[in-house]
Amino acid sequence: MNSIAVRSAGAGWLKQPPGLAILFFTQMWEIFSYYGMRTLLVYYMTKQLLFSQQHASMVYGAYIATFYFTPILGGIVSDRWLGRKRSVIIGAVVMSFGHFLMASESLLYFALAAIALGNGLFLPSLPSQIDDLYAKDDPRRGSAYNFYYVGINVGGLLAPLVCGTLGELYGWHYGFGAAGVGMLAGLVIYTLGGRWLPPERPKAKDLAPADRMPLSSMKQRVLTLIAVGLCVMVFRGAYEQSGNTIALWADVGLDRNAGGFVIPMTWFQSLNPFLVIFLTPLLVAMWTKQANRGQEPAPAKKMAMGAFGVSIAFLLLALVDASAQGHAHWVWLAAFFVLFTAGELFILPIGLSLFARLAPAGYAATSIAAWYFASFGGNLLAGALGTLWSAMAHAAFFALMAGVAALAGVLLRLLHPAVVRAEAMNGRGSDERSRSTSKSG
User: Fold this and answer.
1) What pLDDT does 437 receive?
2) pLDDT at 64
3) Quick one: DSSP state of residue 296?
4) Paired sense of beta strands 261-262 and 257-258, if any
5) What pTM does this model have?
6) CATH number at residue 127
7) How confident is the model at residue 215 (pLDDT cuts 50, 70, 90)?
8) Rounded Cα–Cα distance for residues 191 and 184 (Å)
9) DSSP per-residue string spanning 350-404
10) Alpha-carbon span 432 to 416, nearest angstrom
11) What residue ranges are annotated as transmembrane (predicted)?
12) Nearest to residue 150, comparing CAs of 11, 273, 308, 326?
């Protein structure tokens, strides 16, 4: 039995290979540390370090942008030199070091740089291992990234509750320290669970001629992924408003009274990760039934459906704001997040899975890094679009965001034939490599 079969055999946690649980909890603790620190960062700079709001915002924005840019460099380093396992371990150690450096006020910039650099190695190298847990014909491959995405959101849900509470009530350094401990917990889980993880893929320069993809095929696949990534950038221009203009609207355009209790604004932001955790098993069950009947939508179609779902969510807010007499009831924002999160689950984990499956041989981490680079570009676009919030009526702004998400949906739907061709090419390449391996054995 080959190594993939060993790691994909059985029906363990969530009826998935044991290695997925290792990657799930490693990622969960990494996200816990990242969002735990990020939750406190602006407050720490303005309240403890006495930075001006403008200075703090510039530092925060530069840090977030760098966080999503360094994986491009880290993915190349992982694929060409270090390998994925060593990249994850080194990245986790450097990030932990950066979190603990936050204990010193004078080392703020060094701490942020360490976290961003460690993340560059860690972020693309961890999820690029998921696909190798499964045989190519394993029906569980499709849902693996959805479950992995739940881990991201569990960490995002816990981080403000733990690190934020410790930082606000007991001191900023306790919150930062908790983030560092979380990163170390992820490192321990990953190290101890190594036997369940897939072996390293050969580096591109070490591939046998039979395993190398023809240049024309690689070019078509790379161009397809670039096109999908650009569509996702457009989508994120609307999607990333959830933590920006949506939060502002919750403050000025919403009646948050619930039986005499005023719901805190930040509670609405916790709806998204909670709904990801709640909705993912339902969607995976639905897609599994569709797959058993041969009716599961193709990846690009799923992603287009997700973009259209987010578009509908923004249209709902546009209609609510336009028709509200005074402040809209908070239930409408809750309904928005239900539609918004359902759409998100059709596009973001599906896209991550697509980039992993279509990664050219020897470039798994680089391909995942390219997916996260779409987050970098999408966040910049979202920031630019967010500047229109104060220049437009809120209903008109929400309608514009609905249009941006719908545009991404149309473009993804048009890309469906190209994605199907790339996946079919991927399957042929895998079959050819399997036959070559059998002959050489």
Assistant:
1) 34
2) 84
3) P
4) antiparallel
5) 0.85
6) 1.20.1250.20
7) confident
8) 10
9) HHHHHHHHTPPTT-HHHHHHHHHHHHHHHHHHHHHHHTTGGGS-HHHHHHHHHHH
10) 24
11) 20-37, 57-77, 108-126, 147-167, 173-193, 222-239, 259-284, 305-324, 330-356, 368-389, 395-415
12) 273
